[in-house]
Design goal:
N-(1-d-carboxylethyl)-l-norvaline Dehydrogenase, domain 2, binds nicotinamide-adenine-dinucleotide, Rossmann fold, Transcription Regulator spoIIAA, alpha/beta, 8-stranded mixed beta sheet
Length: about 500
């Protein structure tokens, strides 16, 4: 059951988030009271909303009558006591535990006993915010994403004391407001800010290891991974300082679990003022005359691609790739094999999808020079692929295989022999984090995937992607990454070993 629209919603804190949340609630039909501790800030936010709606009317996205009706429902107020009639209070004040506790402590005295105290905190524990209150069961997280009117995700976060009926009502209310709510438990980073960490973290590691430059990582994540933006362009948009401090906060909140260790390189960027777009320079230069560096590509001029290969094993998720290679002129002869990852044998060299091991180890195991290829989300659309080779693979053989991918319409990014290359490694670590969130009961598979798609625009939920790739392959990639680095960071979640019996994630 959602909050009836005749019930008043109060928004405390009229900054970037508070203003957006007030807009969403008022558009849904509620009377909205807006309060801010800074003099004139609530009135200023109401004025800004006036300008937002004037633009929406100008662009034909709202009628004048609708805009007038929405704006009439928003009332800036001067004191906290004015919020007494509110049935739902959404707090969006500064991110400080003591301030949030104090605000809710006062509101408990002012508002009705059944009023819901929702907090928009991004990182604080809901349980801790509720602790000093008389009615901690009324406190719940209602985590909007910025900008609140545009981004559909709302994480509805329960602390240890939250009454499930309160969480249900907030969930249904967010849905009635046109949002895509998901349930989460009060754990560090909730869903999105926890599961997304490897998206930045693995890109940073690849660059730190000198395996590829930011432009190559971004291009592979976009063109093969299907993401709208690569990690480095996204870090530049968010700001390296902000992105680093979220990573550092999650690391600390998980008692310094090495899986969340922030990047030394990113800290250096933040400390050096290379913040990204807002400072004019980050991973890229944003000066007017600056040109975006193009990722280096494999040089294959005048080199003929191989015309035949033996395919060992089941094509599985790589079927569409082999079809593309066949259309580009490669004759493929199938041979049965029970290998987990299919392998193309060209004679002098083999080509295989990365299983998280170095090309060097694959070459040693197979007794032949190896070229390892990265993962793509959708092989019918992939416009680029990263390839690495073992040290005994001749440059001409590498160039011939690269020419084959080019003939099939893909750009080729040659990278150093880094375990798991770029997309497979990032995706496997996102899947691992999503799996761990599932294992620890942070949310259900649908909630986790919805959060990543609606909150940060992922092209597919990490768990649905794991279904597509096959859980045994994901586990193999993680196991090999873990062996390659001998680092706790890459330890696979225990649930991978039980998943086939426990559940199948849902494909959309
Ligand atoms: N900005 C984001 O991207 C984002 C996204 C999701 C959640 N959040 C969370 O939302 C909250 C607000 O963030 P923001 O970006 O809107 O901050 P902001 O700095 O833009 O706004 C905070 C507002 O709260 C007011 N305020 C401070 N103390 C107050 C008090 N005791 N009583 C009433 N008003 C008070 C300030 O005057 C200010 O106007 C934080 O908890 C933040 O973590 C932010």
């Amino acid at each position: 059951m959602s909050l009836p629209t005749n019930k008043t919603v109060a928004v405390v804190g009229a900054g970037a988030m508070g203003q957006g949340i007030a807009q969403v609630a008022a558009e849904a039909g509620h009377p909205v009271l807006l309060f801010d501790a800074a003099d004139g800030q609530a009135a200023a936010a109401a004025e800004r909303l006036g300008r937002v709606f004037a633009r929406l009317v100008e662009k034909g996205k709202r009628t004048q009558a609708d805009a007038d009706a929405v704006l009439k429902r928003v009332t800036p107020v001067a004191t906290l006591e004015d919020l007494a009639p509110a049935a739902l209070i959404v707090e969006a004040v500064v991110e400080r535990l003591d301030v949030k506790q104090e605000v809710f402590g006062k509101l408990e005295e002012i508002c009705g006993a059944d009023a819901i105290l929702a907090t928009n905190t991004s990182s604080l524990s809901i349980t801790a915010i509720a602790r000093p209150l008389k009615r901690p069961a009324r406190v719940v997280g209602m985590h909007f994403f910025n900008p609140a009117p545009l981004l559909p995700l709302v994480e509805v976060v329960s602390g240890l004391s939250t009454d499930p009926e309160v969480a249900d009502l907030v969930f249904d209310t967010a849905a009635a407001w046109g949002k895509s709510p998901v349930f989460a438990t009060s754990t560090p980073g909730f869903i999105v800010n926890r599961v997304a960490r490897p998206f930045y973290g693995e890109g940073l590691r690849i660059v730190e290891e000198g395996a590829a430059d930011p432009a190559t990582v971004d291009a592979c994540i976009r063109d093969a991974g299907g993401f709208r933006m690569g990690p480095f362009e996204l870090m530049d948009l968010i700001g390296n300082d902000v992105n680093y401090s979220v990573s550092a906060a999650v690391f600390e909140a998980f008692s310094y679990d090495p899986r969340y260790r922030p990047s030394v390189l990113q800290k250096e960027m933040a400390d050096g003022g290379l913040l990204g777009r807002k400072s004019g320079r980050g991973w890229y230069d944003y000066a007017q005359e600056a040109e975006r560096p193009e990722p280096p590509e494999a040089e294959t001029a005048d080199i003929a691609p191989p015309d035949a290969a033996i395919l060992l094993g089941e094509p599985g998720p790589w079927s569409a790739l082999f079809e593309r290679l066949a259309e580009a002129g490669l004759q493929i002869e199938r041979q049965e094999d029970d290998c987990l990852f299919p392998l193309l044998d060209f004679g002098p060299v083999i080509l295989c999808p990365t299983d998280g091991a170095h090309a060097e180890s694959i070459a040693e195991a197979e007794g032949k020079p190896a070229i390892v290829m990265d993962l793509a989300l959708d092989w019918t659309k992939a416009g680029r692929i990263a390839l690495a080779r073992s040290s005994n693979c001749p440059a001409e053989d590498f160039a011939r295989v690269a020419a084959l991918f080019q003939a099939a319409g893909m750009k080729v990014s040659p990278v150093e022999d880094v375990p798991g290359l770029i997309v497979a490694r990032t995706a496997a670590m996102l899947m691992n984090e999503a799996c761990d969130a599932l294992y620890k009961g942070v949310s259900d598979p649908e909630g986790i995937d919805t959060a990543m798609k609606k909150g940060v625009n992922y092209p597919i939920g990490p768990l649905a992607w794991a279904d597509r790739l096959g859980h045994a392959r994901v586990l193999e990639i993680l196991d090999n990454l873990c062996d390659s680095y001998r680092e706790e960071r890459y330890r696979p979640c225990a649930l991978w070993r039980r998943l086939p019996e426990v559940l199948q994630f849902r494909e959309e």
